[in-house]
Amino acid sequence: MTAAFLRPVLAIPAWPALALLLGTAAIMQPRLLTIPFLLIVLRQSVPLALSAIGQCLPMIGRSIDLSIGGVIAVVNVTLALSAFSSGPAWMSFAFPLAFGAAVGLFNAALIAFVRASAVVVTLGVSVMLVGVSYIVSGGAPGGSVNPMVREVAAGRIGMIPVAGILLIVIAIVVGVILRRSTFGRSLYATGASYSAAWLGGLAVRKELIVAHVLSGMLAGTAGIVLTGYIGTGTLNLGADLVMASVAAVVLGGTTFGGGAGGIAGVLAGAFALTFLANLMTGMGVGKPAQLIVQGAIIAGAAALARWREG
User: Fold this and answer.
1) How far apart, in Å, do the first and last CA atoms of the chain sit?
2) Which partner from 74, 105, 230, 256 sits 20 to 30 angstroms from 61, CA to CA?
3) How many CA atoms lie within 13 Å of 5's alpha carbon, on the beta-carbon side?
4) What distance in Å separates the CA atoms of residue 163 and residue 93, rounded to the nearest whole number?
5) What span, in angstroms and rounded, lies between the C-alpha atoms of 297 and 293?
6) How far apart are CA 174 and CA 157, in angstroms?
7) What is the DSSP letter of 160?
8) Listed residue (32, 65, 100) closest to 271, CA to CA
9) Residues 78-118 pLDDT 10s
């Protein structure tokens, strides 16, 4: 009886989690609830939210993308090269999208046609891409980025961060695609039952390919924003977003195989995780303890996903 009552409540656990965090902040750190600070948190959450939106797509189709960190790493060191930092601005935006799409296509080819494990394939690709980032940077990253990249990442229109506007636009577009397009409905059907979808005549391989390509492109977009934040090349940038994106997706109500959640829940999950980090910092919690809490949330999100599926 208790489990039956809790399942609807926990369908999108990001919302009660976010409410709990805001309530805690109101008591412990009221300054975190001011509009300027919430807008700062919004800007900080953009890379994770973009990665999580991308991660959401293959997860709905009962797949996963662990190559996000590798894509971001390569994008970061590449955009810091002089050819990009001093070249036409469009190159700094076109390359991450094209590169992310190519990585997603490679992942999807092995997953959809060879039927290889999505975890093994995308994890292996991520390791390869980290190696590529070392080669591109020569092991000593640095340099600067194109001013337009900095503007997208750190610029503002009035009080609103440009990156936040970009996130909202992308979230609306992806949300409409998932809920209103044939691709979105087919992807949910594929995740619910691959065999039934295939027997029903759905192009299940095509759905997985599109999902992984879009995931790669969104990882590339997250790489643009992260690179613009720091303004230079660095090693292993974005590695922490891989598992965090999975946690944000699960907190947002999407499980492996399609859940009750959607893009709004994923955004809430990403914002909650980012707000949590700021709250712990404001309360004087050290980095080791923060990592323990974040790891516990990720493990708990995985357990919650399994419990909801059961």
Assistant:
1) 15
2) 74
3) 2
4) 14
5) 6
6) 23
7) E
8) 32
9) 999 999 989 899 999 999 999 999 999 999 999 988 888 99
309, HSE (Cβ side, Cα atoms, 13 Å): 17
Q: Which helix (H) or strand (E) segment is 157 a member of?
A: strand 156-157
Lowest mean pLDDT among 14-28, 105-119, 136-150, 190-204: 190-204
Cβ atoms of 66 and 123 closer than 8 Å: yes
Contact 92, 224 (CB under 8 A): yes
Q: Which of 302, 288, 282, 267 is nearest to 48 (CA)?
A: 267
Residue range 9-309 forms a domain whose CATH class is mainly alpha
Record the tokens describing residue 61, joined without a space: 């189709």
Token readout for 171 is: 């979230």
CB burial class (10 A; 0-12, 13-18, 19+) of residue 11?
A: middle
DSSP code for 140:
-
DSSP calls for 58-80: HHHTT-----HHHHHHHHHHHHT
Q: Read off the tokens for 194.
A: 């691959």
Number of Cβ atoms within 10 Å of the Cβ of 51 = 32
